[in-house]
């Protein structure tokens, strides 16, 4: 079984081709994987604009697929280019009504290549930025239509969970099943959720943010400190310096821990962002490097305290046996370290993604696709992108 995955939910165009290794355990080999980041483009504007993200995905996805097919050793050119039959061309144009700029490149691909040895396609269908998601979904639809390959729509947040369950061995990955009940703390640019998992593919959201997501708060605070997009890694770097230099925070730079005592498992980070803004304004003319480092550390500490406290509460309340951390913010050193300690103290098994798989990538979508197939799920024909697709309905 060879599967091709497509991820375009935000600002990374990612394609992976994986091969299921025979046997009872779910193992796979990565035949090719490419992630094309749009960060340099969005950095100029300080954040991601959906229309711009869509344009970039549409511009590069066909070429990226061809490169992945070639790297996986399954690209086979036709002896001579054969034009697509008129009805096929027409249907292709229909599928790509909103991505008409892609018709040319995809037609060249189909006219020049033999059908590759691919048994299934997995594509991120939500949550994410709708215009960006549609590029992936409609590309998958086009490949599926012309090459007659079944499609499995994948929930991006579920894929972040699966990324954390991947155990890298020499030549392959294995999907490890956690002990249940498991708690997943999902922290990304668009989401902050605590999810309970009682068995494979069964998810219940116990708490979530009422306003900004953690990653979003990192990015906004970074902008206040004149740091480039994406702000998470930049804040993290400054906060690490502050700790290494043992900088101490003056009283007026301390920050609140929003909703830490709310009793429920929900979050709110927009007040914290405003609190940072007040301090930045106060120090406006003296926002020197040291002050910036202290603010970054204070912010990271506040976020970490709240995440840790709510995660601990959810472990207690649900007698959880495993803790899964997923999403782009899980690359944060301080958060990783603190949650590792929590898992150790609470005696739960910890699953955390390898750093290269914490951000958006194609391997997590492919792995989730294999899991759906393994679970006996049927491919879908009524494809759509859903920007708000909840993991509970995945
Ligand atoms: O999962 P992801 O790659 O994309 C979404 O699904 O949203 O997460 C991206 C988010 C961005 O907000 C970025 O600033 C944040 O993850 N991030 C970090 C770090 N690396 C990435 N946040 C804090 N510390 C980091 N080291
Ligand atoms: Zn993500």
Describe this structure in words.
The chain has 394 residues and is an alpha/beta fold. 43% of the residues lie in helices and 19% in strands. The protein contains 12 helices and 12 strands. Strands 5-4-1-2-3-7-6 form a 7-stranded mixed β-sheet, sandwiched between helices. Strands 10-9-8-11-12 form a 5-stranded mixed β-sheet, with helices on both faces. α6 crosses α12, α7 packs antiparallel against α10 and α10 packs parallel to α11. The longest helix has 30 residues. 5'-O-[(R)-(carboxyoxy)(hydroxy)phosphoryl]adenosine binds next to α7 and α8.
Draw up the topology in text.
Blueprint: E1 2-7, E2 12-21, E3 27-37, H1 39-43, H2 50-71, H3 86-95, H4 103-112, E4 120-126, H5 130-147, E5 151-155, H6 156-164, E6 166-168, E7 173-175, E8 182-187, E9 192-199, E10 202-208, H7 214-224, H8 231-244, H9 270-282, H10 289-318, E11 322-326, H11 333-346, E12 349-351, H12 362-374
Parallel strand pairs: 1-4, 4-5, 8-11, 11-12
Antiparallel strand pairs: 1-2, 2-3, 3-7, 6-7, 8-9, 9-10
Helix pairs in contact: 2-5, 6-12, 7-8, 7-9, 7-10, 8-10, 10-11
Bound molecules: 5'-O-[(R)-(carboxyoxy)(hydroxy)phosphoryl]adenosine and zinc ion.
Zinc ion binds at residues 156, 160, 188, 327-328, 360.
Task: Sum up the structure in keywords.
single chain; 394 residues; 12 strands; globular; binds 5'-O-[(R)-(carboxyoxy)(hydroxy)phosphoryl]adenosine
Separation of the first and last Cα atoms:
23 Å
Radius of gyration: 22 Å
Strand order of the largest sheet: 5-4-1-2-3-7-6
The strand count comes to 12
